[in-house]
Amino acid sequence: MEFFNSALGKNISFVRPAYFIISGFIGIPNIKFYYVFLFFVFVVSVLGNTAVMAVIYLDHNLRAPKYIMVFNLAFVDLFGNSALVPKLLDIFLFDQRYIPYNDCLTFLFFCYTCLSMQTLNLVGLCYDRLIAIIFPLHYHLKVTHRFMFSLIASFWVFVIFVVLIAVGLLTRLSFCKSVLINSYFCDHGQIFRLACNDRSPSFDIGTSLPVLLVWLPLMFILFSYLYIAYALSKVATVQERVKAFKTCTAHLSLVAIYFIPILITFTMSSKIHPNGRIINLSLSSVFPPMLNPIIYVLQTQEIKESVKKLFKIRNCNCSSNLSNFSVGGD
What we know:
Rhopdopsin 7-helix transmembrane proteins, G-protein coupled receptor, olfaction, G protein-coupled receptor activity
């Protein structure tokens, strides 16, 4: 009860600043080139994820339950980068470091929601691989369109609920002194540490979020692949093992790209310079959404075949139109 009493106490006035200041990098010359680089990463991410979504939507052969989760991953990547990078460029390239209080909390909500959904999408894709390899005969019974839509909806509801709690607790804090956020966006941990009243509820939710949205998903993924490896070692030949693991390479690549930078930041946070922390977190926020569609196109046979087919259809249509034009001209 003390948690809620301190967070939701009545007849308490809170000191809320008109704005926060995003510090960004400190003492790095020509840092604007880094933000220009992030802009190009953003453009590639938008084009790649839009292309993946379009291919899945246009090709009826990609209507399997697995590709519903891939479509959701592309949507989250597109939405997340669109929420983060344009605002980041506005703050640092155009020197708009003063961000209004409400805008900052809104910015935080969308960034954390999308980052959290990325991890849960990886969990959903891992479950798909687990069932496909361990229970291949029951795959179409266990992994249905209805199940995948329900799983995605539950992920969204859970993430939005948890992040709303975190944002709601921030509104119960008073900021009496500094309003300088030592990060590249409205970072939850950096904001609640600026408070001058009881910040224990925000601290509790701040320590719970990584457990719920990083460590537990990662543990599920690791144990799933350990179980897959153990099961294949018992019943499969070497060729069958290689064939089975080839179907997991795209997903394992996404897991490595997403989790390794985050794990480095969490485990070495006390030894990393603030500028190094910002570079690591900013790249881990924008790089996976750029690389995800590239990896899925290159390593997923069905998507590669679909892209080739769509390009072949387009080339045929173009050739047909040119022929009709020539005939008409004659």
